[in-house]
Design a protein that fits this description.
Elements (H helix, E strand, L loop, with lengths): L1 H13 L2 H6 L1 H11 L20 E2 L7 E6 L2 E4 L17 E2 L15 E6 L5 E4 H6 L3 E9 L22 E10 H8 L7 E5 L16 E5 L9 E6 L2 E2 L9 E3 L14 E5 L13 E3 L8 H5 L5 E3 L8 E6 L6 E2 L4 E8 L5 E7 L7 E2 L1 E2 L9 E7 L5 E11 L22 E8 L2
Parallel strand pairs: 5-14, 18-25
Antiparallel strand pairs: 1-2, 2-3, 3-4, 5-6, 7-8, 8-11, 9-10, 9-14, 11-12, 11-13, 15-16, 17-19, 19-23, 20-21, 20-24, 22-23, 24-25
This protein binds the ligand Nc1nc2c(c(=O)[nH]1)N[C@H]1C(S)=C(S)[C@@H](COP(=O)(O)O)O[C@H]1N2 and molybdenum atom.
């Protein structure tokens, strides 16, 4: 019977039995063309959670989803986000330049403090490890362009799904302790950070060195650390071995990997990676329209001027298997904010019409992932749309409002997951 139905459908599509016999493969093509393709990476009702690249395995890494290979950009698959701490081997990777270090001679390596310091100096790794008091902080490293593929209209740049983020326990030396030792000179307006990677960068932009700067007056400098451990282990090479800058609450673009140069600047940094790259409209929420942007009158500021907005994610269920009516299902995932700890996570099982408070997991500090769980027993069969929204300490709550800016930054709309419930 089933075979007959299929055959009849194919015959209808092809118009005649003779054509079917002659070219059987056409039937498959035609049937697929009948149903519109799901949008893989947004926008759309239920885009893939991750990007769509193939799984690739780099040294010290589990199979991750490749966005580009030069520069190396790898996304963390969804299943790793059920836990508060992202395993080092699963942590996403983002570079801008094609030449990245494969090995580092630790005996020769120095952290160089240059420019307007009263005592410019070079610190060896043993000095960093022994001369300063180590501190630890759990903090989320999230790419400014995380979830960029959701933007509508689409914007240029890596079409990340949601996996350009990760939380780790970072251990290292307070940046402030290092700066004090070198003595930040009078008239220093910014501190610039640079690693060991290089390359040509975007053609003709003078951008072959990835340099990022923070204002000398930015309070975040007091929270930043020069980290040599990630979840208690040396950093994977691709995540910045031997040391990287950790800037709690700020987007990852300031979290310089392979940190080797710290420069005290007496003039604001205007290199390509500060301007025009990584800038947001100086508007509420960094939001703007393509039309307004096209006027050329919108003022922009470095994305470092803002902290990461509150976000939350549904990790399970992921829609890959049906739920069963009257059987309890665990809805779980993570939430975080760069602006203050997550105070509330709410889950909806009716597409955002009503909300229930989820149970929060262990508090690992204001800058970490906070896990949540919510037990749901579907009472009927059918298709349901789950949604999740988080609130942070500042009272900021996720909304249905989709942000738009030309860089594809700051996405934090309420996330959804469609699930099917069967009647057992
Ligand atoms: N040296 C160096 N540091 C860097 C970058 C880079 O290209 N080079 N990219 C930044 C950006 S934009 C991101 S998203 C994070 C990614 O960190 P990860 O690769 O450890 O996940 O590194 C930041 N630090
Ligand atoms: Mo990034």
């Amino acid at each position: 019977m089933a075979e007959f139905m299929t055959r009849r459908k194919m015959l209808a599509l092809l118009g005649s039995g003779a054509a079917l016999a002659a070219r059987p493969s056409l039937a498959v093509v035609s049937t697929q063309a009948e149903a519109p393709l799901q949008p893989f990476t947004g926008p759309g009702p239920n885009p893939y959670w991750n990007s769509v690249g193939p799984y690739v395995t780099y040294p010290q890494k589990l199979p991750l989803q490749r966005l580009t290979d030069r520069p190396i950009q790898l996304e963390t698959p969804r299943q790793y986000f059920t836990e508060a701490f992202t395993p080092n081997a699963a942590f996403f990777v983002r570079y801008h330049l094609s030449v990245t270090p494969n090995e580092i001679d630790l005996a020769a390596w120095r952290l160089k403090l240059e420019g307007n310091f009263t005592k410019p100096m070079e610190l060896s790794l043993p000095q960093l490890l022994h001369d300063f008091k180590p501190v630890s902080i759990a903090a989320v490293n999230q790419c400014s362009g995380n979830s960029r593929s959701r933007f509508q209209p689409r914007v240029a740049g890596g079409q990340w799904g949601n996996g350009a983020m990760g939380n780790a326990m970072w251990t290292g030396v307070r940046l402030q302790d290092i700066l004090e030792r070198a003595g930040v000179g009078r008239g220093t307006v910014q501190l610039q950070f640079e690693g060991l990677d290089h390359g040509v960068g975007p053609v003709d932009k003078g951008s072959g060195r990835f340099m990022k700067s923070l204002d000398a007056t930015d309070a975040v400098l007091g929270k930043a650390i020069v980290a040599f451990l990630m979840n208690g282990e040396p950093l994977p090479m691709l995540n910045g071995f031997p040391v990287r800058l950790v800037v709690p609450g700020k987007f990852a673009t300031y979290w310089t990997k392979h940190l080797t140069f710290i420069r005290a600047l007496t003039q604001a940094d205007n290199n390509f990676w500060m301007n025009p790259a990584y800038r947001i409209p100086d508007t509420p929420g960094g939001n703007v329209t393509p039309e307004a942007m096209a006027t050329g009158k919108i003022k922009t500021v470095p994305i470092g001027m803002v902290d990461m907005p509150v976000r939350s994610f549904i990790i399970e269920p992921d829609g890959s298997a049906p739920l069963i009516r009257n059987m309890p299902a665990q809805i779980r995932g993570i939430a975080f904010s760069g602006r203050g700890r997550v105070t509330k996570v709410e889950v909806s099982t009716d597409d955002g019409k009503t909300w229930q408070r989820a149970t929060l997991g262990q508090d690992h500090g204001a800058y970490a992932f906070r896990t949540y769980t919510h037990l749901w027993t579907p009472k009927s069969a059918g298709t349901f749309t789950l949604a999740v929204r988080a609130t942070d300490q500042t009272g900021s709550v996720q909304t249905e409002q989709a942000v738009w800016n030309p860089g594809g930054y700051l996405w934090n709309r309420i996330e959804r997951q469609e699930v099917t419930v069967l009647s057992a």
